[in-house]
């Protein structure tokens, strides 16, 4: 697929597109999952050093930060972030750059994110015509394990002070050549829960002699679904999804316990508080009505990804210059998908944008075993990063600061 005619590419990023494609295909073929990104980190670090950036490795275990000083003095500093990790999935594609690492796959486009930011770093290093300092952050473990939290805890913004930080994700379903962003919540929080229901095992033909945790769980599953509809304000959003059930060994035995697990998504911390409290209450009382008890573990993994207003307005202007104002959605419906870039936005103002990846059909959806990043986006994403960096680190921005 070619770049749409509405996109005004940075000429240097456009010229680098074939090289970015080679990088992306190499990364796609060699996926590494959370905190295992040793080869990926080494690849990124080697490229950054070859461009002339100062490189720091091992931040947040396997993270990489590249630092580039502008040609002109300036006190401003910004950070651009890409995620590097893959998913525990078996790829079903049969093209030449399919995964060679069994059970691991770049099914979310982080290979493309990494290649785009590497491309932008190369373009800016070749012509550092800006004021101040640029940090490019290559983050591990976005999927489930909170690599952004680890980098922040490891002193990311203490060692690399910035005024603001920016992220981007490819977005299937949004046309190629379109971008979307909004101030406020962009992505949901990510909580997980585990409820172990303890009963009394018995012969399946003599259930009156036990306390059946399976029956208790059956009722609890439907009761949990009342939380969004009956415990929250109608304008507040939450998703409670049970995704795993474990219990029982054979046909004629009622087990002594059953475990359910799942996830909760929301946009507000107050909603997370309500969901957790109601879950604990409902688990206790619903299971008690069947003579069982419940042990609840509730863990808050990622907060909501919340864009700051001023930085979002700046990014919207850059996006409009890149793809045309009519191709920028300023008020997309937020996603209940989660993004650990939220931890960086909790520490610094910034903006997270969606980059259209084309139709979400067949294997084009995220986390699908047939997914592949759209290579036409490499020059678009790199152009966005280059334009954003030069805008935020321009003389006018330096004077305003």
From TrEMBL:
The keyword Hydrolase applies. It is an enzyme of class 3 (hydrolase). Keywords: Hydrolase. Residues 193-285 form the Peptidase M20 dimerisation domain. GO terms for molecular function: hippurate hydrolase activity. Its EC number is 3.5.1.32. Pfam families: M20_dimer, Peptidase_M20. It comes from the Bacteria. SUPFAM superfamilies: Bacterial exopeptidase dimerisation domain, Zn-dependent exopeptidases. NCBIfam families: amidohydrolases (TIGR01891). This is Hippurate hydrolase. It comes from Azospirillum rugosum. The lineage of its organism: Bacteria, Pseudomonadati, Pseudomonadota, Alphaproteobacteria, Rhodospirillales.
């Amino acid at each position: 697929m070619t770049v749409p005619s509405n996109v005004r590419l940075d000429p240097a990023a456009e010229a680098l597109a074939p090289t970015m494609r080679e990088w992306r295909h190499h990364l796609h073929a060699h996926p590494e999952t959370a905190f295992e990104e040793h080869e990926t980190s080494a690849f990124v670090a080697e490229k950054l050093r070859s461009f002339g950036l100062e490189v720091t490795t091992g931040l947040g275990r396997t993270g990489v930060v590249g630092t580039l000083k502008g040609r002109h003095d300036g006190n401003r500093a910004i950070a651009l972030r890409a995620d590097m990790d893959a998913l525990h999935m078996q790829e079903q594609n049969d093209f030449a750059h399919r995964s060679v690492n069994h059970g691991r796959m770049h099914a979310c486009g982080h290979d493309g994110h990494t290649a785009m930011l590497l491309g932008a770093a190369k373009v800016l290093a070749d012509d550092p015509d800006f004021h101040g300092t640029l940090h490019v952050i290559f983050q591990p473990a976005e999927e489930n394990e909170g690599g952004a939290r680890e980098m922040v805890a490891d002193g990311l913004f203490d060692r690399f002070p910035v005024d603001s930080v920016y992220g981007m994700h490819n977005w299937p379903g949004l046309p190629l050549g379109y971008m979307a962003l909004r101030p406020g919540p962009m992505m949901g929080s990510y909580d997980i829960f585990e409820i172990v229901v303890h009963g009394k095992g018995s012969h399946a033909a003599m259930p009156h002699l036990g306390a059946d945790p399976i029956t208790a769980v059956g009722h609890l599953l439907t009761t949990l679904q009342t939380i969004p509809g009956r415990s929250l304000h109608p304008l507040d959003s939450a998703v409670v999804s049970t995704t795993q059930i474990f219990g029982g060994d054979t046909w004629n035995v009622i087990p002594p316990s059953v475990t359910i697990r799942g996830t909760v998504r929301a946009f507000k911390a107050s909603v997370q508080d309500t969901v957790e409290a109601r879950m604990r209450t409902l688990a206790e009382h619903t299971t008690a009505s069947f003579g069982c008890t419940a042990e609840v573990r509730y863990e808050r993994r990622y907060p909501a990804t919340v864009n700051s207003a001023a930085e979002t307005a700046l990014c919207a202007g850059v996006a409009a210059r890149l793809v045309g104002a009519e191709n920028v959605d300023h008020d997309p419906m937020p996603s209940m998908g989660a993004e650990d870039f939220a931890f960086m936005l909790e520490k610094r103002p910034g903006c997270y944008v969606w980059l259209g990846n084309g139709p979400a059909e067949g294997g084009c959806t995220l986390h699908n075993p047939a997914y592949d990043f759209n290579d036409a986006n490499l020059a678009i994403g790199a152009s966005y990063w280059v334009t954003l960096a030069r805008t935020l680190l321009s003389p006018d921005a330096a004077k305003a600061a």
